[in-house]
Amino acid sequence: MAEHESLEFGKADFVLLDNVSMPEFMANLKLRFEKGRIYTYIGEVVVSVNPYRAMNIYSRDTVELYKGRELYERPPHLFAIADAAYKAMKRRNKDTCIVISGESGAGKTEASKYIMQYIAAITNPNQRAEVERVKNMLLKSNCVLEAFGNAKTNRNDNSSRFGKYMDINFDFKGDPIGGHISNYLLEKSRVIFQQNGERSFHSFYQLLKGAPDSLLRSLHIQKDPTAYSYIRVGGQMKSSINDGAEFRAVADAMKVIGFTGDEIQTVYKILATILHLGNLTFGVDGDTTLIENKKLVSVMRELLSTKEENVEKALLYRTVATGRDVIEKQHTEQEASYGRDALAKAMYERLFCWIVGRINDIIEVKNYDARVHGKNTVIGVLDIYGFEIFQNNSFEQFCINYCNEKLQQLFIQLVLKQEQEEYQREGIPWKHIDYFNNQIIVDLVEQQHKGIFSVLDEACMNVGKVTDEVFLQGLNGKLAKHAHFSSRKLSPTDKSLEFDRDFRLRHYAGDVVYSVVGFIDKNKDTLFQDFKRLLYNSSNPVLKVMWPEGKLSITEVTKRPLTAATLFKNSMISLVENLASKEPYYVRCVKPNDVKSPLLFEEERCRHQVEYLGLLENVRVRRAGFAYRQTYPRFLQRYKMISEFTWPNHDLGSDKDAVKRLLQGCGFDHDVAYGKTKVFVRTPRTLFSLEEQRAEMVQRIVLFLQKVWRGTLARMRYRRMRAALVILRAYRCYKVKSYIREVNRRFRNVRSMKDYGRQVKWPTPPKVLRKFEEALRSIYSRWWAWTLIKGLTPEETLQVRAKVASLEALKGQRADMGLQRTWEGNYLVGVRDGGPRHAERQIHAVELCVCQINRFHRAEDRAVLITDRHLYKMDPLKQYKPMKTLPLYNVTGVSVSPGKDQLVVFHTKDNRDLVVCLQGMVPANESRIGELVGTLLSHFKSEKRKLQVHISNPIQCSMNGRKCSVVVETKINQSRPDFAKSRSGYVLTVPGN
């Protein structure tokens, strides 16, 4: 039972109807169809309504929903019944079968494909190559069989015109290892004739519409189906079927299955030969029958790989053995046409049976030894024609409807048997159920000596001219008193029946009128031996295999071949025995309308199908007084939350006692029965009441579980956060302490180090201590500087201060500042002991080259002496006689270039700047710029005055109130610096090397 669908979609199981009646059944079926629920259960039977549209309910996700689940755990679906059959096969080591029935167009073939798809999807978790191969073969075989066995009818664009039963073999692990396909009663008359609005088998149209031009030319055929007599009717209509795409799909499927290239070519040649046969016409010249279009004989000779004269002879003559004599009897025009049509039908039927046999050769289990590999089990899938009632019902419809009677009888018997056995097992009294017993119809058809098949066979064996009317007379004679048989002779007033043509059978699905026209010919299924010998003697090995009886000599005496009716009856009896030996599962397909609309539900049309499928009887049998049954553990698992005695777990003696206590507490004890392993609920209302109480409790349980779970999650998150914070805090402390200890270890002995720890590498601090590390480095740097400075003399201190000042002003802008050497201060020996004014303290003295601005713009050698008050320019040739005195308070700034030259410009308040270039250094490349700038800066700082220092090239200055610039340039092969006049001022050229 499907319990996971809302009642807005109707009852998911017909067993749960309040009243078992046709109106309620139809109302529920219609509601579910309109709501898009195409599957409904009757216990373990699936009722499927063709939706006539693609539905997204067969995906891999849906497969996972049903895999391994019980029927009641998910909404009704084909996958549920397929999974139940697979579980029964795998768990209980039982052979199972799925019987799919319904009329043409109800969706049987699609259902069988989805079942195959599901079984293929749930098996083989290890993706072994051999298992994948078998699954692929089984799925691909559907495509090929549909092409050659299906056709468009007025009711269905893809109607199966044959019955198919497929066995899938599984090994002991549940993986498919092979299979076998059985086919029943191909409607071969469709090859030569189709009713208006119908087509022949798909294969003909696929060949014409999809084959490449080169293949068509080799077969001597053209793309237009209306050019061929046999398929002209179907070729004139427009169809939504894409024959071209289907041709390619079928060709690919045949290759995948294992058909060789030659075999596929032979298939095409046989189809082409049948088309050419249809266009073959006969004429009469006096008493002689002739072939009017002999060119086709030559074409068929080529396609059949035989001799032209043999083809012509087989078409026009029949070889007859009379004792020891063999004579050739010429056909009349009518006999020749009959033989041609019989050959076309027989060739197509043999082709179809050969294709099925070829597929079986490839997919059948080989080299399987049960003693070595373990027992293999089987799932059978039966997709067989549904009950058919047409305007004109002939021999094929009679056989098809007999087949459905046989299967319906099996269905009722097995379902009834299953129900009886279950009630007996559980110790529940069985209530007799009235149902339509098909056995009387089955006997009417197949009974020895009295049945319709027997009468038909007797008529075919009569000597002389046997007609269909003789057969009907035999039926009237033997079945005159049968309640389910009537004809116009037996019911003269019934004008719906034609004299000497029609008879009526009262089937379980309704009354069907059959026309006896063609019964004798179709039952005899006569094919002249000449055709069999012709095709057996072909040089094509595939054709030779299809006609093994052609090797018999004409004089050999053989048994009369079994008639088509006897063969079909025997195959049906064998099929039913096969199905009865397995555990059956059923899919009952219903066609909602005849116009293939996804919205229309024709109630009368569906009611008729419900009646002849026996669905209402199935519901009554299933209920048999109890609408629902379930094992105690599963019942308890679903409803235990209703009672305080069973929630969350019971402490009673057994699950049966717990179920009794639960139902007594709900007041339903009067409406149930307790079996040995199951509880039986009598009315659906009780079950719905249990479901309502469960739904109400589930909401409360869900809220409670949500509350508990959310609280649990919150506590878990809190504990995780608190633990993380504790760990984080401890880790930070550890990292801080580790860093402090490491710094302490590395710098412990810096006082005794020669460089006071300057070369010690600082450890990498944790992120939280980065600012602390900066402060620590600053403290260390100050301590290191203080340690160095505290041992200096006052003169050394002054020099250090000057160097620091120079570094701050020039660092990064001049490469060499002379910081590594001792700054002498006085580089003019002649003025070391005194100068122009003995009261002034000497700061710096240096020999330099001064550009004196006169009318000649010439550079002269001069010396500079800087005291704490003045800057003196002196002549070194006149014993350093002062030539110019510049008060230091008048100096506002100093400019130097960024290069290695020794250019210095002293800027003054009165715009009379002094431009000098230091020279005469020992060693020659020594730089004095840093010392000069540092000394002046240090002095000005001590005076609390500001001195501007500029680094640029060119240097802007003022000479006697006029703005100009000094540019430094290098010159190769120049021995000493020199000044020269330029447009914008002056150029100082310095040695390049």
UniProtKB/TrEMBL annotation:
Keywords: Actin-binding, ATP-binding, Calmodulin-binding, Cell projection, Cytoplasm, Endosome, Motor protein, Myosin, Nucleotide-binding, Protein transport, Repeat, Transport. GO terms for biological process: actin filament organization; actin filament-based movement; endocytosis; protein transport. ATP binds at residues 102-109. Its main location: other. It comes from the Eukaryota. Residues 812-992 form the TH1 domain. Residues 572-594 are annotated as: Actin-binding. GO terms for molecular function: actin filament binding; ATP binding; calmodulin binding; microfilament motor activity. It is found in: Cell projection, Dendrite; Cytoplasm, Cell cortex; Early endosome; Perikaryon. It comes from Takifugu rubripes (Japanese pufferfish). The gene is myo1d. Belongs to the TRAFAC class myosin-kinesin ATPase superfamily. Myosin family. Residues 9-695 form the Myosin motor domain. It holds the Pfam family Myosin_TH1. CDD domains: MYSc_Myo1 (cd01378). This is Unconventional myosin-Id. GO terms for cellular component: cell cortex; dendrite; early endosome; microvillus; myosin complex; perikaryon; plasma membrane. The lineage of its organism: Eukaryota, Metazoa, Chordata, Craniata, Vertebrata.
